[in-house]
Amino acid sequence: MADPKFPPAPDWDLETLLVHGGSLRSQYGELSEAMFLTQSFVYESAEQAERRFKDEEAGFIYSRFSNPTVAMFEERVRLLEGAEAARATATGMAAVTAALLSYLKAGDHVVAARALFGSCRYVIEDLCPRFGIATTLIDGRDLAAWKAAMKPNTKMVFFESPANPTLELVDIQAVSDIAHAGGALVVVDNVFATPLLQKPLKHGADIVVYSATKHMDGQGRCLGGVVLCKDAFLKDYLGVFLRQTGPAISPFNAWVMLKSLETLPLRVKAQCESAAAIADHLALQAGVGAVLYPLRPDFAQAALAKRQMSGGGQIVTFTLNGGKEAAFRLLNALKLIKISNNLGDAKSLITHPATTTHQRLKPEARAELGLSDGMLRLSVGLESARDLVADLDAGLRAARG
Ligand SMILES: *Cc1c(COP(=O)(O)O)cnc(C)c1O
């Protein structure tokens, strides 16, 4: 795959890399990274075309393979994650599916934590078995369960941490050690933590996937995904899979995400501060049961959160004692916070998982995940925390009836 060869990035801090890293400047000397809306590229000569196809010369061929704007986005995320290689995809689900199916084949086995984003659970539970890939879903918090689920043909393990919506964590280092002892690769969906608050590769993971739709865009516009991996995995598995099956991201979407990365640290920091304050406020209110937030001292896995995360994230999950009726009364009383199942946005968004993102699951499966009918998942945005608290307080008054 004839890609541009980016020079090694200077020894800059993350904030600097996210503004300047991976920029390719055209002959016009534009300041802002350019959007290359082109399907294909032309060659100076027949010889040059031959060299590009033989991978003897860096450069672009066709935007299903690579594109300058997409390459800039990939390089910036690669620097952010500290990975050997990065590939962007059309959506987060395309990233997850490509990471798994580029490597796995009939006869292989996958172990996954059962607390998964709904579509990830479909890929593991329904799609993989259709192609002869056996899967085992377990409680991701239970290291003995990971160990017990490993089989001689286990080729990958897959999990999110924190997981949606209960924010339960998986010990990335411990599970990576178990997986590697059995010869399996570790794939982590790191969306909830963002690349700023948790570095799975440093804790032993082999592959990290993102829905760039969430914090990387951060303003609710475009869909996108990223897979981060080793050069060898890209060369032997992922690269050819993406090139031939075609879940390519649009250069327009990649440009939006590329520019958004410039402000990612500022946004994530502000959202984490507000989320922590809102979690503490909610925990003191009448009618509120459990408040789940990874860095609160009462969080069941607070010690693990401290060990592998540098911030609590911007999701706060809380339970109302009045069940679904109280949850719906709160939602319908909100004026500022929007009812939406997205997350990581500048706008604060709230959702009732039991009747939306997780309604596909049987009640027993929801109970297994600790997902109750009174549970709400709040994605804290960039509004002032004072306005958000006032809106939630009005919602809580309505919920109490
Ligand atoms: C949103 C999300 C995805 C899927 O991303 P899309 O861009 O919507 O395809 C996967 N995993 C997690 C944890 C997510 O939050």
Structural write-up:
- This protein is globular.
- The strands form two sheets. The chain has a seven-stranded mixed β-sheet, sandwiched between helices. The protein has a five-stranded mixed β-sheet with strand order 8-9-12-11-10.
- Strand 5, helix 8 (194-197) and strand 6 form a beta-alpha-beta unit.
- The termini are far apart.
- The chain contains 15 helices and twelve strands.
- By secondary structure, the protein is of the alpha/beta class.
- The chain has two domains: 14-263, Type I PLP-dependent aspartate aminotransferase-like (Major domain) (Aspartate Aminotransferase, domain 2, 3-Layer(aba) Sandwich), CATH 3.40.640; 264-399, Aspartate Aminotransferase, domain 1.
- The protein binds pyridoxal-5'-phosphate.
- Pyridoxal-5'-phosphate (PLP) is lined by residues 91-93, 96, 117, 119-120, 160, 164, 189, 191-192, 211, 213-214, 223, 225.
Number of strands: 12
**Helix-strand topology string:** HHHEHEHEHEHEHEEHHHEHEHEEHEH
Ions and ligands: pyridoxal-5'-phosphate
Number of helices: 15
CATH class of the largest domain: Alpha Beta
How far apart, in Å, are the first and last alpha carbons?
62 Å
Give unreliable regions as ranges. Answer: none
* CATH arch. level architecture of the largest domain: 3-Layer(aba) Sandwich
Characterize the overall form.
Answer: globular
- What level of helicity do the residues show? 25-40%
How does the helix and strand content classify structurally? alpha/beta
Order of strands across the main sheet: 1-7-6-5-4-2-3
Estimate the strand proportion: 5-15%
What is the subunit organization of this protein?
single chain
The main pleated sheet reads as: 7 strands, mixed
CATH fourth-tier homologous superfamily of the largest domain: Type I PLP-dependent aspartate aminotransferase-like (Major domain)
* Overall number of structural domains: 2
Give the C-alpha Rg: 22 Å
CATH fold description of the largest domain: Aspartate Aminotransferase, domain 2
Mean pLDDT: 96
